[in-house]
């Protein structure tokens, strides 16, 4: 069984796709904990309703960022995860975290990396005028959306797309890609 800790900051729709997938015993993935940097993140509610242990570790501007990173690392390490998934987690992790979990934290991004990294990937892709966009799954490193790409899914851009309509179609691919990757990893089909 692949042990996964999921980190969220918001509503947790990507988390919900993983929770739904774990309802099938043959999926081979167990979400052992869900953590957030926001106490009121709805993703925590989703996890609690599914019987998954949760924790919140807010970071406030001006606090010791390295101490926060060490505490986040310790809280996650206590669950002995094989993989950590950033599912809309809006904080960058630091040196202590990356040292402890090197190569084991995955993140998705709503653009075809290395193009359009950062918080506005969908908006930037539309502004550039691309005809194909999509979602990327990558290993988190010290940069912003700069880690090794594991998988990508494409999404056609329609002439009448808005940021919202395109992002909704990308989210569908993001969810399927992450669920599929973790299934393959649990089955031993993926070699890091």
UniProtKB/TrEMBL annotation:
(6R)-10-formyltetrahydrofolate binds at residues 65, 90-93, 107. Its EC number is 2.1.2.2. Pathway: Purine metabolism; IMP biosynthesis via de novo pathway; N(2)-formyl-N(1)-(5-phospho-D-ribosyl)glycinamide from N(1)-(5-phospho-D-ribosyl)glycinamide (10-formyl THF route): step 1/1. One of its GO terms (molecular function) is phosphoribosylglycinamide formyltransferase activity. The active site is at 109 (proton donor). GO terms for cellular component: cytosol. InterPro entries: Formyl_transf_N, Formyl_transf_N_sf, GART, GART_AS. Residues 3-181 form the Formyl transferase N-terminal domain. It is an enzyme of class 2 (transferase). SUPFAM superfamilies: Formyltransferase. The record marks 145 as: Raises pKa of active site His. It catalyses: N(1)-(5-phospho-beta-D-ribosyl)glycinamide + (6R)-10-formyltetrahydrofolate = N(2)-formyl-N(1)-(5-phospho-beta-D-ribosyl)glycinamide + (6S)-5,6,7,8-tetrahydrofolate + H(+). Keywords: Purine biosynthesis, Transferase. It comes from the Bacteria. One of its GO terms (biological process) is 'de novo' IMP biosynthetic process. Catalyzes the transfer of a formyl group from 10-formyltetrahydrofolate to 5-phospho-ribosyl-glycinamide (GAR), producing 5-phospho-ribosyl-N-formylglycinamide (FGAR) and tetrahydrofolate. HAMAP family: PurN. Belongs to the GART family. This is Phosphoribosylglycinamide formyltransferase. It comes from Candidatus Avipropionibacterium avicola.
